[in-house]
Design a protein that fits this description.
By secondary structure, this protein is mostly helical. The chain has two domains: 89 residues, Alpha Horseshoe (Serine Threonine Protein Phosphatase 5, Tetratricopeptide repeat); 68 residues, no CATH class. It is 65% helix and 0% strand. The protein is built from nine helices and no strands. Helix 1 packs across helix 3 and helix 7 packs antiparallel against helix 8. The longest helix is centred in the first third of the chain and has 14 residues. The two termini are 31 Å apart.
């Protein structure tokens, strides 16, 4: 297996539209960071223009808890057009663990991710609008983005939409 394939095998996210094989992805909690960091660093060196490799390297660093390194890898992937990286940058800012906490920056990154058309970004932006993360709650806008994410197959967005309709903003949902 080559370096790019190794990185893909060890760190592709199930919800990343850039993942080369949707059947061969790995959930974040199952990711083995030491092996993934090594494989993805080698893959990035081999193919530095492939945004998915930078994103996957970011996931590996993120899983390791090296959030500044994760941010740098995600930022490079985002510069290359990765909506998935934008989602994860937003999560880093929202959580603020071993990283700057800024709900306003989180919301802005989620918006950017949503506007790329990635369903996970749409969901995260809707959650921010719903719960007033980084700004005032906005039920109408949250509803719009939950609907868009639902139309693209995001089950948790459909469930969130029902909660929003029944209970109004402030559902307490999370994007992570």
């Amino acid at each position: 297996m080559g370096t790019i394939e190794s990185c893909d095998h060890l760190a592709s996210a199930p919800w990343d539209p850039d993942a080369p094989d949707a059947q061969r992805t790995i959930n974040f909690r199952e990711l083995r960071p030491t092996a993934a960091v090594a494989a993805c660093r080698a893959a990035v060196a081999e193919a530095p223009r492939l945004r998915r490799l930078h994103f996957q390297l970011g996931r590996a660093y993120d899983r390791r808890g090296a959030n500044q390194d994760a941010f740098e890898a995600y930022r490079r992937a985002a510069e290359l057009g990765s909506g998935a990286a934008k989602v994860n940058i937003g999560i880093l800012y929202q959580q603020g663990q071993r990283f700057e906490k800024s709900e306003a920056k989180a919301r802005a990154w989620f918006r950017d991710a949503a506007e790329t058309g990635i369903p996970e970004g749409m969901y995260c932006y809707a959650v921010a609008l719903d719960n007033g993360i980084g700004g005032s709650p906005d039920a109408a806008a949250a509803r719009t983005w939950y609907v868009k994410a639902t139309e693209r197959g995001t089950t948790k967005a459909r469930d969130a939409l029902v909660r929003l309709e029944l209970d109004g903003t402030g559902t307490g949902l999370r994007c992570d």
